[in-house]
Amino acid sequence: MRRKLFCEISPTTYKISLEKEILLRHIKNFFSSDKIAKTHSKEELPNIVKSHSSILIRKLLGVDIKLQENKVTNIMLACNKINGIVIHPGETFSYWSTLGKAGKKQGYKEGLVIGMKGMTSGYGGGLCQMANMIHYLVLNSPLKVTELHHHSDALFPDERRRVPFGTGTSVCYNNADYRFKNTSDQDVQILVWCENGELCGELRSERPFPYRYKLIEENHHFRKEGDRYYRISQVYRVVIDRLTNEELYKELILDNHSQVLYDYSQIPKDQIRND
């Protein structure tokens, strides 16, 4: 039998471990050479690099709808912190440096949280959706992702999914951050807001980039391995010349092999392969 880690012994030891990681992150940030973006502007940059929207409340089997409703409140509070941030050339966007602590004192409510022992609730729950939004916008640009923590498991079945599976990111204050660096020669800006039951986002720039991007998912299927099911696919990013519309190349950005953690009855039968 595997020996339990200190953080797995009890809720108290888990909290101690988490506080230790938060402290280590503060120390790391203090000595880091990254120049963190801090400028906000109400004036929108003129060029839209990419826009996207995602549904705020999804029908999730076995999940208290109140946690979903609270998530909307949390997302709206996060919008107030992030909307309009400008990332100058050479600067790094840090999710948690921009957002700050998302706790009860800051007005956040209990939402759905994915922890070491699966799904639970916690203050600020649901903010992964905001990080997912920003990451998707960045994937459709030449900006460089410098910190990313993938969800390793298939947590929920698709419910009006609009992006390839697995292109999200996990965040946890303050040790699991999401960061990207503006490696271009112009300012970029993130706009986020809630409208008609959706989280909306735009990545803007001063002028168009020479390339545009497209994400595609290939070889998507489910496969049973032993007594467990896994969701499998490959996600590619296609780089396209903006002037000629020619597809220059495609690069593998994600090779999914994710354990399905939801009820197997919700796996579409026609997507199961036995090979």
Can you offer a commentary on this structure?
- The protein has 275 residues and is an alpha+beta fold.
- 20% of the residues lie in helices and 36% in strands.
- It has a domain at 34-57 and 64-209.
- It has four helices and 15 strands.
- The strands form four sheets. The chain has a five-stranded antiparallel sheet. Strands 8-14-13-12-15 form a five-stranded mixed sheet, with no helix packed on it. Strands 4-9-7 form a three-stranded antiparallel sheet.
Strand and helix layout:
Layout: H1 11-31, E1 39-40, E2 47-55, H2 65-82, E3 85-87, E4 92-94, H3 95-99, E5 110-115, E6 118-123, H4 128-139, E7 144-147, E8 153-154, E9 179-181, E10 188-195, E11 198-205, E12 211-225, E13 228-241, E14 247-260, E15 272-273
